[in-house]
Design a protein that fits this description.
The protein has helices spanning 36-42, 69-81, 94-105, 126-141, 144-154, 162-171, 175-185, 213-222, 238-241, 243-257; strands spanning 3-6, 9-16, 20-25, 46-51, 87-92, 110-116, 201-206, 226-231. It starts with a strand and ends with a helix. It has an eight-stranded mixed sheet, sandwiched between helices. A hairpin with a 2-residue loop joins strand 1 and strand 2 (9-16). The protein is an alpha/beta fold and 258 residues long.
């Protein structure tokens, strides 16, 4: 299995195709297989890279507290490992926030940014300030299998196949690791750094995404040279629910970068 070491973690990745580097980062509790339909669509024209964020999938998680900064450091380490000076970063939810923070902290490494159902803050408004601490509390109480079942059921309304994928992805996590990961993910904050994004940016949001939809217009206004598109018939698992529309939007975006 292709791996590399980064800050005490062994990071798993896959590469398909040649051309413009297009790096996909998955959502929390998921893994690189989230992007199967994107890999199949883009591998004939791009160098498509998928990876497992530390603690997910086939990537390991060192003992101790998880530093949210390590997520973007790992992504840059992946670019370094593959000898890539720049790339187009695409992520969903947690993966989008990791990609966003990479563009903020390492702007010279990011040619373009695609944020799907991505939050920029866990304290965005009163909703997040109340909901996120409650979510952290119940995350520690609920058995991981039950939590995965509830998530999978909630996100399978448009595509029933999502259920099996989400359950399989969650089953690769250990409860102890997941609690540490989620505590780190819910401490990621970028609301006041959005102006630092210098590359062209595409924001995609599912028309039924009730989890992150409230932040998209704000991000669009704060990020210069950004565009916002709504993906029809899609919830938070946007690229799983409507891969055709997502692929088309990404394809149009990267065509403008060349």
């Amino acid at each position: 299995m292709p791996t590399f070491e980064s800050n005490g973690a062994t990071i798993y990745y896959e590469v398909a195709g040649e051309g413009l580097p297009l790096i996909f980062t998955h959502g929390a509790s998921w893994n690189h297989k989230q992007w199967i339909k994107q890999v199949a669509y883009f591998k004939d024209r791009c160098q498509v890279i998928t990876w497992d964020v530390r603690g997910h999938g086939y990537s390991s998680l060192p003992p101790g507290p998880v530093d949210p900064e390590h997520f973007s450091v790992d992504l840059v380490a992946l670019l370094d490992h593959l000898h890539l000076e720049t790339g187009v970063l695409c992520g969903l939810s947690m993966g989008g926030h990791i990609s966003l923070q990479t563009a903020i902290r390492y702007p010279e490494r990011v040619k373009g940014l695609i944020l799907i159902g991505t939050p920029c803050s866990n304290t965005f408004n009163l909703y997040e300030k109340i909901a996120v601490p409650i979510n952290r509390f119940f995350n520690r109480l609920l058995p991981l299998k039950l939590s995965g079942h509830l998530q999978a059921k909630f996100l399978s309304k448009f595509n029933p196949d999502n259920y099996q994928y989400i359950m399989e992805a969650v089953s690769m996590l250990s409860p102890e690791a997941w609690h540490r990961i989620w505590f780190a993910v819910t401490r990621m904050e970028s609301k006041h750094d959005l102006h630092k994004v210098k590359c062209p940016t595409l924001l995609l949001i599912g028309d039924h995404d009730t989890l992150t939809g409230r932040q998209q217009l704000y991000m669009h206004r704060q990020i210069a040279n950004s565009e916002l598109k709504v993906i029809p018939n899609a919830h938070h698992g946007t690229n799983l629910d409507n891969p055709e529309a997502v692929n088309q939007a990404i394809s149009e975006f990267i065509a403008q970068l060349n």
